[in-house]
Amino acid sequence: MEQRTELSTLGEFGLIKLINEKFPINNPETLKGIGDDAAVIDSAGKELVVSTDLLIEGIHFDLSYCPIKLLGYKSVAVNVSDIAAMNAIPKQITVSLGLSNRISVEAVEELYEGIKAACDEYKVDLVGGDTSASRSGLVISITALGFAEKEKIVYRNTAKVNDIVCVSGDFGAALMGLQTLEREKQVFLANPDMQPQIDKDRDYVIERQLKPQARMDVVYELRDLGVVPTSMIDVSDGLAAELLHICKNSGVGAVIFEDKIPIEDQTYLTATELNFSPMTAALNGGEDYELLFTVKQEDYEKIKNMNDVSIIGYITNDVTDAKMMMKSGNLVNITAPGYEHF
Amino acid sequence: MEQRTELSTLGEFGLIKLINEKFPINNPETLKGIGDDAAVIDSAGKELVVSTDLLIEGIHFDLSYCPIKLLGYKSVAVNVSDIAAMNAIPKQITVSLGLSNRISVEAVEELYEGIKAACDEYKVDLVGGDTSASRSGLVISITALGFAEKEKIVYRNTAKVNDIVCVSGDFGAALMGLQTLEREKQVFLANPDMQPQIDKDRDYVIERQLKPQARMDVVYELRDLGVVPTSMIDVSDGLAAELLHICKNSGVGAVIFEDKIPIEDQTYLTATELNFSPMTAALNGGEDYELLFTVKQEDYEKIKNMNDVSIIGYITNDVTDAKMMMKSGNLVNITAPGYEHF
Predict the structure, then answer these.
(1) Which of A98, A101, A232 sits opposite B139 (nearest CB)?
(2) Closest by alpha carbon to A244, among A306, A156, A131?
(3) Of residues A111, A34, A130, the one with CA closest to residue A73
(4) Do residues A177 and A209 make contact, with C-beta atoms less than 8 angstroms apart?
(5) Alpha-carbon distance B232 to B292, whole Å?
(6) Which among B10, B82, B129 is the nearest to A38, CB-wise?
(7) CA neighbor of A165 nearest in space, from A43, A29, A323
(8) What are B91-111's pLDDT values in tens digits?
(9) B236 min Cα distance to partner chain A (Å)
(10) What's the first-to-final CA gap in chain B, in angstroms?
C-alpha cells in the first residue's frame, strides 16, 4: 500500500523546512530566498516583469487524471510562458499552496517534485510563498518574476502593418489531450473496475495537456539571432483569440493561411476520432502555451530557419480584423468564442 | 433590497475592465500594469523585495463578520506590512481572486473598493492578477513588490548583542477584536433574530482585527532619522514568536520588560471581560502587524522620541533564548505556541 502521512504530522514549519532543503538558490541575483518577511532580488539594472496565476482544483485541474507531480510542473511552466511572452528571462517564482486534508505529505512532496523539475528546466529560484490549509480543494498561486533590458521587452500592442506573423510549435494538441483524458475518466466513472487505458498513439496530445512547455528556447534563439519581435503573446486561450488580442491591441489586422497552421499528425488523428475539426481545435483549443509573435519583414532572413517556428501570415491595415486564407482561396473571418471562466 | 448582480453577467473581461478603470497607475516605475502577459516595472537601480500571501475563506477570514471591503483592505495591508518589515517601500501589488458564485458583482466591487483604499493609503499600483471561478469559498492571493537601496534592506537574522529592542504600536488588540467578533457570531448563530451588538467600547480592538495598518509611517520616520535597524520583522504571529524568530535567526538572546510591553486600555478591559490574560494576548495574540526591530545603542538618541515606538528590551548573548523581566523582578522564559495552520 502506498504510504500516506497526514499533513498535520509535518506542520507548517516542517513543510517550510522541506521546501527549503529541496530548493537551493541558483541565480546570483537572488539575494535572499525563503526565510524572511520577503525575498530580496537584485534587478541588475534590468526591467522587472511580473506575472501571476491562480489555479483551483475543480476549475483548472482535475486530480483524477492529472498526476500531482505534473500539475506542479505545469503550474510553473504556464507562468514562465507569460514571462517568455514578454521576451524576458524568468529568474524567480513564489508558490503559495492551499492544502486540503485530503492531501497527504507524500502528495505535497510529489507536487514540489514537479515544481522543482520545472524550476530546474527554466533555471528559476523558488524564493517565497505561503502555505495554509484549505477547506475545499487544492489551491496553487504562482507569481513569476523575469528580467530583460528595456529595449528587449515585447508587448502585445506593438505589431505593425506588413510584419510577419510567426508561431512556435503546433496547435490543438493540448485540447485533444484533455478530450482524451475526459473520455477515459467517463469510462472509468461508468465502470470503476475498468482501468483507464490510454493508447500509446495518444502520448503526444496527452503530454501536451499534462506537461506543457514554456518556449524559452524560442526566446533564447531570438536573442542569438539578434531579433526583437515587434509584438508577442503566449497562446493560452487558443491561437485565434491571441491573434485577435494582438490585432485589437495594436490597432491592426492580420491574414493567416490555413495551410500554414502547424498541427501534429496525432492531433489530426485524435480530432478525427473524437469528431472534432482539427482546424477548430488548432484555432480555438486552449493551453498550447506556444508563442505567437510578429517580426519586421527585414528580419525574415534571420528567422526563416528558426527551430520549430512557422511563418503563418502577415499583419494588415484592416483594423482589428483577422482573416484566414483557406486552401480553397476563400478569405474567412477569424472569431474566438469568449473564454469565460465564470 | 440590496442589488445583487450575478458574476456571470459581468464575465472575466468585464471584470478586468472594471479593475482597469478603478486602478490607474500612479508610480512612474510602473511601466506597464494590467493588460499584457505580465506587468513591467522599472527597478530604478534598487533591490526588489517580494512578498506573497494566500487568504482562503473559512481559514483566514469569515465573511459572516468581516465586511468584504475591509477584507480587501486587510489583504493588501498585511502584504505591505511584510515589505515594511524589510525596510523597503511598497510600489506594486498583484491580486488574484477565486470567486464562488455565492459572490455577487456588488460584493466583488466592494472587495476592490477596499483593495483600492489600501492601494491609495500605501501608494501602490495594482499591476496584475488573475480572476477565476472557485468551487468553494473566496480565495485571495496577493503578491507585493517593494524596493530599497541594498544597504537599507533589513533582515531578521542580523540583530547584534546589546542592540535595543523596539516595537511600534501596541499588542493583543487584534486577538481581542477577533474574540469579540467570534462571541457575537455565536450569539447570532444561537438566535438569528438577535442582531450582533458591538459595544462602542470595543471599537478599537475590532478595528485592529478588521482593518490592520502596515506601519509604513515607522519605515519613513526611520529614514528621516537616518536610522537603519539592525534587524526587523513584522508581528503577524504574536510578539513572542517574532522575537524568538529574530533571536533564533540572529543567534542571539533577548530580554524584554513586562512593564514596557505596550497594551491599550481597551485591550486590557476586553481581555479581562473575556477571561484572557492581557499579557498572554499581547505576547501570543496574532495579527497585530506592528514592527519589531532592533537598533544599535548609538542610535538611541535618534529613536527615543519616535512616534508610537516603544523600547521594550535589549539583545543578549544568551543564544536563542528570550526572556521577560517581570514587574516582580523574576526573569521568565518566553515561549510561543507553534502557530500551525494545518
Answers:
(1) A98
(2) A156
(3) A111
(4) yes
(5) 6
(6) B82
(7) A323
(8) 999 999 999 888 888 999 999
(9) 10
(10) 39
Pick the residue of B19, B25, B37 with the most A CBs within 10 A to test the interface with A by mutation. B37
Q: Is pLDDT at A74 greater than 60 in this prediction? A: yes
With a cut of 60, say whether residue B341 has pLDDT above it: no
Looking up cell 510542473, which residue turns up? A73
Asked if B127 lies within 8 A of A50 by C-beta distance, the reply is: yes
The answer, yes or no, to whether residue B308 has pLDDT greater than 90, is yes
Residues of A in contact with B54 (CB under 8 A): 96-98, 130-132, 139, 141
Q: Which of B58, B101, B135 sits opposite A58 (nearest CB)?
A: B135
Cβ pair A43:B38 closer than 8 A: no
Is B135 labelled a binding residue?
no
The residue in chain A having the minimum alpha-carbon distance to the alpha carbon of residue B135 is: A58
How many angstroms separate the CA atoms of B50 and A32, rounded?
10
Helices within chain B (DSSP H only):
11-22, 68-84, 105-122, 173-190, 203-210, 216-225, 239-250, 265-273, 278-284, 300-303
pLDDT tens digit sequence for B321-333: 899 999 999 999 9
Q: Is B33 annotated as a binding residue?
A: no
Say what the pLDDT of residue A101 is: 83
Which domains occur in chain A, in start order? 7-152 (3.30.1330.10), 164-333 (3.90.650.10)
> Left, alpha or beta for B286 (phi > 0: left; psi -120 to 50: alpha)?
beta
Which chain B residue's Cα is nearest to A48? B41
Distance from CA of A7 to the nearest CA of B (A): 7
Among B92, B79, B213, B219, residue whose Cα is nearest residue B152:
B219
CB-based contact B156 A39, cutoff 8 Å: no
Backbone φ and ψ of A113, nearest 5°:
-60, -45
User: CB of B235 within 8 A of CB of B156?
Assistant: no
- Determine phi and psi for A52, rounding to 5 degrees: -145, 145
When CB atoms are compared, the residue of B96, B139, B338 closest to A11 is B338
Is residue B338 scored above 60 in pLDDT? Answer: no
Point out the least confidently predicted range of A11-25, A117-131, B62-76: A11-25
The verdict on a CB contact (< 8 Å) between A136 and B135 is yes
Tally the C-alpha atoms within 13 A of residue B104's C-alpha that lie toward its C-beta. 7
Interface contact flag, A36 B156, Cβ < 8 Å: yes
Strand order in the sheet with A290-295: A231-235, A290-295, A164-168, A309-316, A253-257, A322-325, A331-333
Q: Do B128 and A52 touch (CB under 8 A)?
A: yes
pLDDT reading at B136 higher than 80? no
Q: What is the mean pLDDT of residues B139-147?
A: 96
Mean pLDDT over A141-158 rounds to: 96
Per-position b or e across A151-166, b if 16+ CB within 10 A of its CB: ebbbbbbbbeeebbbb
A56 three-class SS: strand
Is pLDDT above 70 for B340? no
Residues of chain A with Cβ-Cβ distance to B289 below 8 Å are none
Please answer yes or no on whether A340 and B58 come within 8 Å at the CB atom.
no
Of all residues in chain B, the one with the smallest CA distance to A33 is: B50
Smallest CA–CA distance, residue B272 to chain A, in Å, is 31
C-alpha cell at B8: 456571470
